[in-house]
Write a sequence for this structure.
């Protein structure tokens, strides 16, 4: 059973405590535990005592309902895209995407592969790219710090862009997913 | 009347702040045990504010909406029935209004609401976690109830303030020394109450991630966190009153609740988790037998 209502386009509310809220959002990033590509292996050390991402308030959540960040960890295959769209749309606003590795930027070493996406930004709104093949955990932490500074400044608004340009993203997504059986929006 | 309302509001806010702060400190202590730096002690406040400001567009039915309210109402009810500082009438709130059985009954209320809400969310992990949680609860409630009954029979009172008053003649008069086996049973039952390992089968991150609140997000989760923080403090106050002689002043209260809160945190950090049937079997036999030993001793 699906809800077929499309999301309302968010307005630019100027709220008194928006700055405080942005500080809280930046310092409490909960990441959906969903690895799409080989980069997921680089996320594991972030939990350990060597890198310890919890000191920045970053925690893993196994359910998209409670998460803020979706990490596309490396190449995204055409088969995985459908699942990623479902997970991303189930995350409650505001939400952010961090893309790891060269594969998400231009295809990387899989640039001519028949079953991976080349430019992730055409299908989902990416807030921060972390380059490398694969980026080391230090680079991922650096990407998170960049995301945190963008949130504090109120510039990490990929989720608004996604809702405002849903038709553009859907058109691109449907070019890849030929057997489209998802609802208009995955609540 | 007005002073009562102010007292109740202050109590709830203070319990919320102390509960969230204890949660943050415990996360930090767990991280130090792991050899990590860990989050800030105020991390739970930041998380709660962030969750409160997230949007929510999920609807699973009426009970799904009401469960966080059940949780927070149950927590506040328990909090208001426990004496906070001995001898200060303003902090007694509603503690004169019922006996210890009413308190144990009310403690169940929030958990039951949570179970119904999680069931309403329809997520399979939530339902598995709820069935596990209720099974485990029926196991530890038995030993906890026998322990409380032992203390009540031994001191000839069912009223919590009577139990606290009977422990005011120095450290040796604390119930933990007068009823050592019953106290041990109650302290073992305290671990599953705090969802600590080896009894952490409800939130079991490796099998049923998150457990009952899997479908909850945003403000629902924020309310649940508040309810959990307040309920945590209420349970600490109950245990301090039951076993550790109550608190004669605010600093004593803070030290006692802090140490008692850290006991499941430390145990949880070094123990692996039981399977469901192991946990229930352990709770049926070990703490129940311990509590029964003291009950028989008191009855004789």
């Amino acid at each position: 059973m699906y809800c077929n209502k499309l999301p309302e386009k968010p307005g630019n509310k100027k709220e008194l405590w928006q700055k405080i809220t942005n500080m809280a959002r930046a310092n409490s990033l909960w990441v959906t535990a969903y690895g799409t590509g080989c980069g997921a292996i680089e996320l594991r050390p972030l939990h350990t005592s060597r890198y310890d991402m919890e000191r920045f308030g970053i925690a893993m959540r196994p359910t998209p309902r409670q998460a803020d960040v979706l990490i596309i960890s490396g190449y995204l295959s055409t088969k995985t895209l459908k699942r990623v769209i479902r997970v991303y749309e189930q995350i409650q606003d505001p939400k952010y995407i961090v893309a790891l590795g060269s594969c998400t930027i231009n295809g990387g070493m899989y640039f001519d592969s028949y079953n991976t996406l080349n430019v992730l930004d055409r299908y989902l709104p990416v807030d921060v790219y972390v380059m490398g093949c694969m980026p080391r955990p230090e680079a991922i932490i650096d990407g998170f710090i960049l995301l945190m500074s963008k949130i504090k400044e109120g510039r990490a608004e990929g989720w608004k862009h996604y809702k405002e340009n849903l038709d553009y993203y859907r058109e691109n997504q449907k070019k890849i997913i030929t057997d489209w059986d998802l609802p208009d929006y995955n609540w | 009347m007005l002073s009562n309302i102010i007292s109740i509001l202050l109590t709830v806010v203070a319990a919320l702040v102390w509960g969230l702060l204890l949660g943050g400190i415990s996360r930090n202590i767990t991280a130090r045990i792991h050899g990590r730096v860990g989050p800030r002690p105020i991390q739970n406040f930041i998380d709660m504010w962030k969750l409160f400001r997230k949007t929510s567009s999920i609807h699973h039915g009426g009970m799904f909406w009401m469960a966080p309210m059940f949780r927070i109402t149950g927590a506040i009810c328990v909090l208001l029935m426990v004496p906070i500082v001995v001898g200060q009438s303003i902090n007694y709130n509603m503690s004169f209004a019922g006996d210890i059985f009413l308190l144990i009954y009310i403690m169940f209320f929030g958990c039951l609401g949570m179970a119904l809400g999680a069931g309403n969310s329809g997520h399979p992990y939530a339902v598995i976690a709820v069935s596990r949680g209720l099974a485990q609860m029926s196991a530890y409630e038995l030993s906890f109830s026998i322990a409380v009954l032992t203390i009540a029979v031994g001191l000839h009172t069912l009223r919590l303030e009577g139990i606290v008053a009977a422990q005011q003649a120095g450290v040796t008069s604390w119930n933990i020394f007068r009823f050592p086996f019953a106290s041990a049973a109650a302290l073992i039952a305290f671990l599953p109450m705090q969802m600590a390992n080896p009894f952490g089968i409800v939130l079991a991150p490796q099998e049923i991630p998150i457990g009952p609140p899997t479908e909850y997000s945003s403000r629902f989760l924020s309310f649940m966190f508040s309810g959990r923080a307040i309920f945590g403090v209420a349970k600490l106050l109950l245990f301090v009153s039951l076993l550790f002689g109550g608190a004669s002043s605010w600093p004593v209260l803070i030290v006692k609740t802090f140490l008692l809160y850290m006991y499941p945190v430390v145990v949880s950090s070094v123990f692996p988790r039981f399977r469901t049937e192991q946990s229930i079997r352990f709770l049926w036999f070990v703490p129940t037998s311990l509590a029964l030993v003291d009950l028989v001793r008191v009855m004789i």
